[in-house]
Design goal:
Number of domains: 1
Structural class: mainly alpha
Largest sheet: none
Number of strands: 0
Order of helices and strands: HHHHHHH
Radius of gyration: 19 Å
Shape: globular
Strand content: under 5%
Distance between the termini: 42 Å
């Protein structure tokens, strides 16, 4: 449900663009859709995650610039800025605090060696940087319509592939821990 809610403004942006072929109008509708998403999240949970807040601010600022200046470049840069800010935050967590962001998010559910958490965190940094670069490549190399398709399907698909790869990485470390647990029980 949360994933669906997170992608709802992007889906609305996509549908408006596909029905009107107007990126400025789609962006103008994206802004209140994202605000309503945050309001719903706040009413439902009484909290908003920092990542969601950063995304909201960038949608309002860069989306607002797109609408006011009638220039699609700002909204096309938004995914890159979001990804690079997330990458910077994940990288900073390697050096600030006791745990990386990945460990803070997932540490309550699984136990991994410290180096595995750091490697996983760095993988997310690389993923975010790469996603930002890929977004710019698509935005500046392909048509506006292709970029809109990529924003929804390409970014979602690449994220799902990365999460699956992360699952294989995690299972490798979890499987390594299981035999020692069984030996301790014997």
């Amino acid at each position: 449900m949360k994933l669906l809610l997170d992608f709802l403004p992007i889906v609305i942006f996509f549908v408006v663009y596909k029905t009107t072929n107007d990126i400025i109008l789609a962006t103008a509708i994206l802004i209140p859709a994202t605000l309503l998403q945050m309001l719903y999240t706040w009413i439902k949970t009484h909290k908003v995650e920092k990542m969601q807040l950063v995304t909201l601010i960038l949608v309002v600022v860069l989306g607002g610039a797109t609408v006011l200046l009638q220039d699609k470049t700002f909204i096309q840069w938004k995914p890159t800025v979001v990804n690079w800010l997330f990458g910077l935050a994940f990288l900073g967590s390697q050096f600030i605090g006791d745990k990386t962001i990945v460990e803070r998010i997932m540490g309550g559910n699984i136990s991994l060696p410290q180096n595995a958490w750091k490697n996983l965190n760095i993988a997310w940094v690389i993923f975010f940087v790469a996603m930002g670069i890929i977004n710019l490549f698509v935005a500046y190399t392909f048509s506006e319509e292709t970029w809109v398709d990529f924003k929804l399907f390409g970014m979602l698909g690449l994220t799902l592939i990365f999460i699956l790869a992360q699952g294989f990485y995690l299972s490798k470390h979890i499987q390594e821990a299981e035999p020692s647990d069984k030996n301790e029980e014997a």
